[in-house]
Structures are given as C-alpha cells and as structure tokens.
C-alpha cells in the first residue's frame, strides 16, 4: 500500500538525517537517499519479464516476511505503477549490468534495501537491525552492500508513469551502462530536484 504524502515527508526527513549522521564519510555529500520501498521487483532482462523477480545471487538475509500480496500475473510494462504491490521496475540487457545487480538486493531486501547515492559512491544500504545475525550497535545502524563509484549513475530524474489518473510519481536511475532502475516514490520530484541541486 502506498504511503500518504505526510508520512512520505516524515520518512524523508528521517532518512536524510540518519544518512547524514551515520552513513556519510567526512566531507562526503549526500545526493539521494531513497526511503524503504515495500513491494516486488519486476525485472525486464533482454526483453523478458520476471515478476516477481527473485535474486540470482546471494544477498543479505533480512528478518521478517514479505508483507504484501503477489502482483497481478499479467502486468504490462506500461502498467506496473498501477499495481501497488510492485515497488521497482528494472530494465537491463544482462545480469552484469548495474541495474540488474541492484535488483538482486532490491528483491532480496524485502523492502529494507535502499538505493543511496553520494558524490563518491552508489550503494545499497540496509538497516543493520533488519539483517539476520547482525549485532545492534546504535553508532552503526546501517550496513552497505554493492558499493560502486558514483560515476556509474548517469542521471536521477522524476517521471509520472502508468495509465491511471493521476499517473504515479517514479524516481528513475539511469546508469552509464544503459540499464535503469525505476522506484515508486511519492516524493520523486522532490528527490530528483534535490539530487540536481546537490551534484
């Protein structure tokens, strides 16, 4: 289920504050800190759709179970935002591309894996308390995976997608290798504007 705008704004404030406090290295600037997105991943790999996508590689084990129903079985590329159980849509030509590698975490992370971009790096960030076998340390509340140089990100923009009215706001990450991750996000326009001003 999608959040309301006030909840999305409150979560955004928390994400920004916590990433600045606990994740960024000295002198590092946050470009985009995505919120948790609870839903499935649709992976369009070489034109073939897998929905819901399951990770092809081992990813951190997140505690708890998926809390949403399965997506409709016949979702089309232009309709995915109209199915509230789908949080991400990933387009790639091979599993070695950036978006496909990220899809493993987004699918295996049960909505807890978050895309995070700074002026130095792109990473998938998990709350440590949600990872199986992790000790809780208030001074280190995040764990970072799939870290890459920030140059792998060509652009971060906001789009409105879907056939419903109004169309749904989506945050689009386009990578240097041509692959793309779309994330359902009520604050996509705010986040994209912020990313542009921080680059």
What key attributes describe this structure?
6-stranded mixed β-sheet, single chain, 199 residues, alpha+beta
Element layout with pairings:
Elements (H helix, E strand, L loop, with lengths): L4 H19 L6 E4 L6 E6 L2 E3 L35 E7 L5 H11 L5 E5 L2 E7 L14 E8 L3 E9 L6 E8 L4 E5 L3 H11 L1
Parallel strand pairs: 2-4
Antiparallel strand pairs: 1-5, 2-3, 4-10, 5-6, 6-7, 8-9, 9-10
Please tell me about this protein's structure:
36% of the residues are buried. A hairpin with a 2-residue loop joins strand 2 (40-45) and strand 3 (48-50). The chain is 21% helix and 31% strand. It contains 3 helices and 10 strands, in the order H-E-E-E-E-H-E-E-E-E-E-E-H. The strands form 2 sheets. The chain has a 6-stranded mixed sheet, covered by helices on one side. It is globular. With 199 residues, the chain is α+β, with helices and mostly antiparallel strands.
